[in-house]
RBR-type E3 ubiquitin transferase
Amino acid sequence: MFECSICMDEHLVDDVALVEKCGHKFCRECMTDYIGSKLTENRFPILCPVCQAESDVQDAGFIQRGLVDQLALSQAQYDSWIDLELSQYSVMLDCRKCQSSGFVDSEDYKELQYIYCPLGDCDHVWCKACGQTVGPDQESQKLHSCDGENELNALMEAEGWKNCPGCKTPIERIIGCNHMACGTPGCNMHFCYKCGDSIIRSVLKDEIKGAVNAHFHQTTGKCPLFFIPAEDEGTS
Ligand SMILES: [Zn+2]
Ligand SMILES: [Zn+2]
Ligand SMILES: [Zn+2]
Ligand SMILES: [Zn+2]
Ligand SMILES: [Zn+2]
Ligand SMILES: [Zn+2]
Ligand SMILES: [Zn+2]
């Protein structure tokens, strides 16, 4: 015989609902009612009724699935238990592409930076932080930045663009010459495509010419003027 901590009646041991961690005992009827009321409040995890009443319990007991399985919960109650349990240990994902949702383990989710659609045959991958779609391969994931800066840089790299060192505007290189002149009004920056250095900020033709010639001077300059060195124009 034991005393139920809710109704204070003596019950046969067969009727015990034992909360494992704290060892508090209840009759199954009281425990079923108690869990039922917590479930309607969507409370989860559910504390042992005695431990909950004692506000400073260090090792408070929680109702575990094993105990629930011994009780005569209604199907609706049991379903809502499973839902709450699942939502505690897992995170629901919604895929924009296939419109499906699925669960991943919440511990795994914490570690993830990129989310793969939980549906097997969907190839959608997205960034956990910003939700933007990324490629399924590591290369494109490494490239991803939530503000799009890495992507822009990579595009610039691929397209042969360079930021103007004066105004930071991306400039496309059209001809094979490493001398770049920024077209942004008021910037007037001349810079080197090869090293990215600014050469001169000026509107005076002679001044520009002098600085550009110095940077690209054949022997004393820092960089060659042409991307692919010009073939034999009296240099050999
Ligand atoms: Zn009882
Ligand atoms: Zn307890
Ligand atoms: Zn999907
Ligand atoms: Zn992102
Ligand atoms: Zn500029
Ligand atoms: Zn030029
Ligand atoms: Zn240079």
User: Anything to note?
Assistant: Residues 177, 179 surround zinc ion (ligand 6) (CB under 6 Å). The chain has a mean pLDDT of 89. The two ends are 108 Å apart (CA to CA). The longest strand covers residues 90-94.
